[in-house]
Amino acid sequence: MENFIYVIKPVRSTFLNDSTEEERAIVSEHFHYLQNLNNEKTVFLAGRTEAAEFGIVILNTETRQKAEEIMNNDPAVMKNVMTAELYPFLIALS
Q: Structure pTM?
């Protein structure tokens, strides 16, 4: 198994304060998506900065391709509410 991190950012800097009802519903889908993956032990950690400038998702998957698939299927990414970039990630301490 390998670890990957994806950095996720809202599509606009004011998102936390001016998101629409539809966008908030998508963020809720995003949360439940990650929660399910956390229950399956695929998501090791997920969270965001206090002001929501960006968030991170740490994954434990068999391949980079699987990590990309998970990231690209995140509802917030699929529905263009957030952008995401994937990186290999080495955990030094846990």
A: 0.94
